[in-house]
Amino acid sequence: MKKPILVFGYGNLSRGDDAVGPLLLEYLEQRADLTQVELLTDFQLQIEHALDLQDRDLVVFVDASVTGNDAFVFSKLKPCRDNSYTSHAMSPAALLQVFETVTGQPTPPSFLLSIKAESFELGEAVCQATAENLRQACRFAENLLARPLGEILQTQTAP
Predict the structure, then answer these.
(1) What is the pLDDT of residues 95-115, one digit of tens each?
(2) How many helices (H) and strands (E) in the chain?
(3) Contact status, residue 62 vs residue 47, Cβ threshold 8 Å
(4) Which pTM value belongs to this model?
(5) Nearest to residue 24, comparing CAs of 128, 119, 136, 105?
(6) Residue 21's closest CA among 141, 87, 115?
(7) How far is CA 63 from the centre of its chain?
(8) Hey, CA dihedral for 149, 138, 120, 73, is it positive or negative?
């Protein structure tokens, strides 16, 4: 039986700040209630991941972002047909659209936790500024997942 909450962190541990999605999952692995939360990681979103969304009450995608000024942004997602399904960088909104198309069901409530990042060079470690952003995002995610599901679903954006 699937767990009601899926946290999907994606990125490449070998590409500097791109590692923040998988690193946030490593943090949650020690702190979240894993009887209710499934942690899933991959280098990138793929069409096949649409089926990982089935039978969930909540999905949280976690990724690095070069936009914005805040350490992280937590925002509600809606399905959106775009051309990213043909590229190596499928968007979470496009994955939600694929889910609706394939299953004929509405998507589970879904959010994107975008962590501000700066450098994505192969072989580099996470830079100091991004490490601080990741630390803040980890605490946010830990506190978010400790809340009742109904309260989480009332969240629209953060910080």
Answers:
(1) 999 999 999 999 999 999 999
(2) 4, 6
(3) no
(4) 0.93
(5) 136
(6) 115
(7) 5
(8) positive
